[in-house]
Amino acid sequence: MRDLGPARGPLALRVDAALWGAVAVGAVALGLQLVEGMGITGLQQPVFWGVYTINFVYFIGIAHAGTLISAVLRLVGVTWTRPISRMAEVITLVMLCIGALQLLFHVGRPDRAPLFMILYGRFQSPLVWDLISITAYLLASALYLYLPLIPDLARLRDRGGHVAWVYAVLALGWVGNPGQTVVLRRAVNTMAVLVVPIAITVHSVIAFIFVSTLQPLWHSTIFPPYFVVGAIYSGLGAILVTMAVVRVSYELQDRLTDLHFRRLGRLFLVFALVWLYFTAVEHLAVGYSGGAHEREVLWRRFVGAEAPLFWTMIAANGLVPLLCLVSLRRSPMPKTVMAAGAVLIGMWLERYLIVVPSLMAPRLPVAVVSYWPSWVEAGVMLGSLGLFMLGFLAFGRLVPLLPVVELDDPVPANPASRSDGAVLRIVQQAVGGFVVLAVLGVCVWIGLLVDRAFLLDDVPWVAVAVGSVAVPVFLTMAAVVAVVTIILPGARDSAQG
Amino acid sequence: MALWGMTIDLDLCTGCQACALACKAENNIPDVGTVDVRRGRRIAWMEVLVQTDPHHPGRARFLPRPCLHCDDPPCTKVCPVFATFRDHNGTVGQVYAQCIGCRFCMAACPYNAKYFNWRTYHDPGPGQNPQVSVRGKGVVEKCTFCHHRLLLAEDRARGEGRPLAPGDYVPACVEACPTGAITFGDLADPDSAVAHQARSPRAFRLLEELGTRPKVIHLAARRERDHA
User: Fold this and answer.
1) pLDDT of B126-170, one tens digit each?
2) Among all residues of chain B, which has the CA nearest to that of A356?
3) Fewest CB atoms within 10 Å of the CB: A87, A208, A225, A292?
4) Model's pTM, two decimal places?
5) Which residue of A has its CA nearest to B60?
6) What is the ipTM of this complex?
7) Is the Cβ–Cβ distance between A208 and A39 less than 8 Å?
């Protein structure tokens, strides 16, 4: 087994320093914003949603990649994606946290926002649906990352070292006997089934933030699927770039082969075409029969103030990927990475073009001032990206970024470690119990939201519908956690596979 | 139950901005400073918009726009924390102590009638109206139909042991209008002056096609109708 330890050396140190520098810039910008108020950003009226909203949509979009790569492809029995799945899941989890943070940067009262949305949450608002679906996705993707990691954690535990006890707690007494294998496989499959619909709802609900208003071009039924497609598209781009970086820096040419880039590039091409299709349909419908007000925004995009950004987006999301990906027979890595880089820029522009031009076209003759982000927003964005990369690197230093045990022939773990100490078991069960209780608490909270919706006659039926989908999802995840912490460590050798 | 509403006769409006100023004084609306005004961060609960017509260049009409207190308000639906809601008497309330500043209601309002406190704008010195709370940075605010006046009028009427009479409760902008273009009252009472005005053939509601059912009803200028 190749040692996937951290890459050390002057380059790694310089990268670290640069990333911490970016985070420091973001922290300073954010601190100033907290003291001064949102006035320090470039936001104004009528463009009161800007870079933070765009980044919220964009980052959470990127967080969709992990699900598609690992869950969907695992469910349909594709095996070549195995070396990529772990990286995709880490991107998902870290990006999701960074994306959720953007909401805190965005609101005027970050001191109130999380608490008030829980205490006084109102089920009619898509923002509350967002809170629920992002919580579900956070939990699901954390579990979905953690479960396949257990055998690798056991191997790290057996290797010893001064943090071996942490790995021992997390490895849940894994020795890889048939009983444990069955339990783990079932848990992973359950999560794979669960995580796909959750991921789809997350970005649909984010689209609903826009759909539920009366702004031109936002009020459209195509938005939820369009957002999901765009999310997966940008997420695939992020995975391709990460794959290339990991392959080069860890010299993993034999693990992340040209085959992976070629096949993933083909999938990327499919999503490029689907994205182009959605974009064409959206603009065609509005241009053909949209009202005068909507068409005004459309023309702003085509030939007006936002035209340079619009056509750059079309080139970056459509033209460049199509040209790069049409033939991947030779040197697939540079081609896919070039396409992926273009898409990562293009999808950000797409989110920009969704948020800003619509707000720039108010219906009444109010004064319109054009929007230009200030250095604060740029700094916070830089810091967020730095934080993402640091988070990804931290994962890479603590756990293997490739599912080592799944890829190698499983070497049985040290049976001696099976006899975990009583203290270890208590710690494990306490952690598991805490997670289960927290998840049950979320279910109770959703119940209270539904109850309040009835009390205040506030769309009770929507509340019941959302609640009846969300509660079983959370209960299933609580059950998975309970099973894994209680049954997995004690599963017998004799169990049938 | 009263259903408070307002009519604004565009034929009588001279664009003098008295309503906007009275509103500013009554509701402690802060001066945001020249820099922020230039950046489009002005706060004006009652705003006199100027509407130009590309088909008649050189001609404009004034369009006073308070919060329209829609009967089916798009802004209250999206609020995640009950900071804005339609009150039992039809007014759309905004609770500053509950607002988290997500600006979702601003995105939802098709009339751009909501304003955000981009910085700490309010003047800590004397001269504030003690009946209206000042707003800190990071929350959304808007016209309340001078809700505090309603509370006072109700209290007074209750003290005198009589029902609320027309004219007991009038917002500051209505009082200030020198041409009497703004009429305020109970739309639910068919005999009230405002209900009479609302039935006028000149009555129209801003962006009626959106189905928000505003309770601020504008009366089209006769002059314009003649030119149509």
Assistant:
1) 888 999 999 999 999 999 999 999 999 999 999 999 999 888 999
2) B107
3) A292
4) 0.93
5) A365
6) 0.91
7) no
